[in-house]
């Protein structure tokens, strides 16, 4: 037994000596040359190695070089350079006097892709580029010869620079682990990298690398992560970048994707997060088509096909449908009056309640679009639209959103909204509403909620500015209201006409009920002017005129009533003045106006009396003159008859 153990130990020692001695007997230059030939075959580029070449025992039998370079085709910058190259060989093949490369490790590689101002790229193929994988040039290594048990990249860097476009993209801390038993077997790889403050990782599998490199279709799969974002694809691919298959993306923080690619993402409203997209994908350098697409933006889900034509400015075409869309966050009180204006009555605020935050409309230049959306319901918070058909077109930084059909504010609504950022931001729109709820409409349009009723309305407007305050102060346009039975809160004209205390007839609880209200208006420099308001009620009718400062959120308006004579309205008819911030206007009987009216009436009476008195005095003078003339005539003519 002991003798057997001694013999086994002796055999093991001899084997170790043979293995260790064999690896050192192999020329380092020969191993390095083999590794260089393999890399040249795979990359189609010349490989140069520098520094000492030394055999290694761990983690694999093989050789480790010093620095290395893989040449580019243009310019002085190498396509790939690195700190060290490690090549591992198959032990059993080595014992058979064959060298079979099993593992290649690149330490600190730097991949540099440069496109100069003339569009010349250092990775582009030229006539003198060495034969790549699959070429039949002398000394080349055919695809069938390729096998790689392991390829790893440690602490790599990738840089893409386009001088003409001003692009300088850098990926750092790249780690890659890949393996492929043979060129016709699957290639599997995993990688991780850092860029733009983000960490990304991916697991990739290619069904047959040889077929892919030869231009044939190969099965591929991808599972990638960027921060909290995840992207997956399973399908087919070609070497020129064509993809067909199923994909999904979950993007709770889409800004990380833009940061990874070196850009700055436009802020996505929190209400639109997370973003989830899935469907059948067909992609190429020319465009992207998504069939059976399912899209989630926060609480909102849409379905339908989307096509994107890829060019300098992508063009998006989509036909989407949704059961219900929740856009209630759009009714946030960003443009409402300030708290100070709400609390002050005697000293109204200046009415600067619109947001002065700059509006970033640069996103209108990022793409062109023709999108149609059909939704069973759209919730805007203060109101909800039913049976909605919308279209959105974007052309050269000009967007037009059109309501083709909608049941809204209790009636039917059509209209359009235009945002134009070609030469500074401007907005415009027009709207027609039939039997709509006026309170909901005015609340949404201007934050004014004191009038209720249903009626017809027309509106057109144009505004210019880089923030909401500037736009509201620049508005121009025109419109009209035709309302049936309704009411206005803040004052009670019937009580005023009936002789009630003005303090009781004015206030938040006071309400004026009317049977009809009609008005037209024009808007100039953010101020709405009206001079033909007509209100009809059971006890009175009234006319109104004045202004509504849309930019300053202030009212300056006067209602002038005419009371119908009956047992209730025997009191004095008093005009009502409405002025101040519209969130809390000051509403009061306009006694000054009454006084001026009375003074004017007295002046008119005095003038009339003076006029009558003057006429009377003139008549008396004329009579006296006439009498005197008659006397003179009698005296002068009397001698003729003597």
Please give a structural write-up.
This protein has a 34-stranded mixed β-sheet that branches. Helix content is 21%, strand content 46%. It is built from eleven helices and 34 strands. It is elongated and about 160 Å long. The N and C termini lie far apart (198 Å). Mean pLDDT is 76; it is low at 1-25, 131-146 and 333-352. The protein has 642 residues and is of the alpha+beta class.
What key phrases describe this protein's structure?
single chain; 642 residues; alpha+beta; 34-stranded mixed sheet; 34 strands; 21% helix; elongated; disordered N terminus
- Quickly count the helices: 11
What Rg, in angstroms, do the CA atoms define?
43 Å
Number of strands: 34
How large is the share of residues in beta strands?
over 45%
Biggest sheet layout: 34 strands, mixed
Helical proportion, percent range = 10-25%
Low-confidence stretches: 1-25, 131-146, 333-352
Distance between the termini: 198 Å
Q: What structural class do helix, strand and pairing data support?
A: alpha+beta
What layout of secondary structure does this protein have?
Layout lengths: L1 H24 L2 H16 L3 E3 L4 E3 L5 E3 L3 E3 L9 E3 L1 E6 L1 H5 L5 E7 L2 E6 L32 E15 L4 E14 L6 E9 L2 E9 L2 H5 L4 E9 L2 E9 L5 E9 L3 H6 L14 E9 L3 E11 L2 E4 L2 E4 L5 E12 L12 H5 L24 E12 L4 E12 L2 E11 L2 E10 L5 E12 H9 L4 E14 L3 H7 L1 E16 L1 H5 L4 H4 E9 L1 E9 L2 E10 L3 E10 L4 E10 L12 E6 L4 E4 L1 H48 L4
Parallel strand pairs: 7-9, 8-9, 20-21
Antiparallel strand pairs: 1-4, 2-3, 3-6, 4-5, 5-8, 6-7, 9-10, 10-11, 11-12, 12-13, 13-14, 14-15, 15-16, 16-17, 17-18, 17-19, 19-20, 21-22, 22-23, 23-24, 24-25, 25-26, 26-27, 27-28, 27-29, 29-30, 30-31, 31-32, 32-33, 33-34
């Amino acid at each position: 037994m002991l003798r057997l153990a001694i013999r086994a130990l002796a055999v093991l020692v001899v084997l170790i000596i043979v293995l260790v001695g064999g690896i050192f007997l192999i020329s380092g230059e020969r191993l390095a040359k083999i590794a260089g030939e393999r890399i040249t075959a795979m990359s189609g580029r010349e490989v140069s190695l520098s520094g000492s070449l030394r055999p290694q025992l761990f983690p694999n039998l093989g050789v480790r070089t010093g620095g290395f370079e893989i040449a580019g085709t243009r310019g002085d910058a190498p396509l790939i350079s690195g700190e060290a190259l490690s090549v591992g060989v198959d032990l059993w093949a080595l014992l058979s006097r064959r060298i079979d490369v099993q593992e290649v490790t690149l330490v600190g590689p730097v991949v540099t892709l440069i496109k100069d101002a003339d569009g010349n790229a250092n990775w582009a193929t030229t006539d003198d580029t060495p034969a790549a994988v699959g070429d039949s040039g002398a000394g080349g290594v055919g695809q069938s010869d390729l096998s790689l048990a392991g390829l790893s990249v440690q602490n790599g860097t990738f840089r893409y620079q386009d001088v003409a476009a001003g692009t300088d993209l850098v990926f750092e801390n790249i780690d890659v682990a890949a393996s492929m038993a043979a060129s016709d077997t699957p290639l599997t790889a995993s990688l991780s990298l850092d860029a733009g403050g983000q960490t990304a990782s991916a697991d990739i599998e290619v069904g047959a690398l040889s077929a892919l490199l030869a231009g044939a279709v190969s099965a591929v799969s991808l599972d990638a992560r960027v921060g909290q974002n995840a992207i997956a694809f399973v399908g087919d691919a070609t070497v020129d970048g064509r993809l067909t298959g199923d994909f999904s993306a979950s993007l709770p923080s889409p800004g990380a994707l833009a940061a990874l690619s070196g850009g700055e993402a436009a802020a996505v409203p929190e209400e639109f997060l997370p973003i989830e997209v899935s469907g059948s994908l067909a992609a190429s350098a020319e465009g992207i088509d998504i069939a059976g697409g399912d899209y989630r933006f926060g609480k909102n889900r849409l379905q339908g096909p989307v096509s994107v034509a890829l060019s300098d400015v992508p063009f998006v075409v989509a036909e989407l449908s949704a059961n219900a869309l929740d856009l209630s966050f759009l009714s946030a009180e960003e443009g409402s009056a300030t708290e100070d204006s709400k609390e002050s009555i005697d000293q109204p605020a200046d009415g600067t309640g619109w947001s002065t935050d700059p509006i970033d409309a640069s996103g209108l230049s990022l793409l062109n679009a023709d999108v149609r959306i059909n939704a069973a319901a759209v919730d805007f918070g203060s109101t909800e639209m039913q049976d909605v058909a919308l279209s959105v077109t974007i052309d050269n930084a000009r967007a037009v959103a059109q309501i083709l059909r909608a049941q809204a504010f209790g009636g039917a609504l059509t209209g359009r909204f235009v945002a134009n950022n070609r030469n500074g931001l401007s907005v415009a729109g027009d709207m027609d509403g039939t039997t709509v709820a006026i309170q909901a409409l005015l609340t949404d349009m201007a934050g004014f909620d004191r009038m209720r009723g249903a009626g017809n309305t027309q509106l057109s407007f144009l505004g210019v500015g880089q923030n909401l305050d500037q736009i509201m102060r620049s508005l121009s346009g025109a419109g009209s209201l035709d309302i049936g039975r309704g009411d206005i809160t803040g004052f009670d004209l019937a009580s005023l006409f009936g002789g009630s205390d003005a303090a009781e007839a004015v206030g938040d609880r006071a309400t004026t009920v009317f049977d009809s209200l009609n008005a037209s208006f024009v808007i100039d420099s953010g101020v709405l002017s009206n001079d033909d308001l007509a209100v009809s009620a059971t006890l009175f009718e009234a006319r109104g005129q004045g202004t509504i400062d849309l930019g300053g959120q202030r009212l300056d308006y006067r209602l002038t009533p005419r009371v119908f004579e009956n047992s209730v309205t025997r009191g004095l008819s008093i005009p009502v003045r409405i002025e101040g911030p519209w969130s809390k206007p000051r509403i009061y009987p306009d006694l000054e106006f009454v006084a001026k009216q009375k003074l004017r009436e007295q002046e008119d009476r005095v003038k009339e009396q003076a006029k009558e008195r003057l006429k009377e005095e003139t008549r008396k003078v004329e009579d006296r003159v006439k009498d005197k003339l008659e006397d003179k005539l009698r005296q002068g003519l009397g001698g003729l008859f003597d």
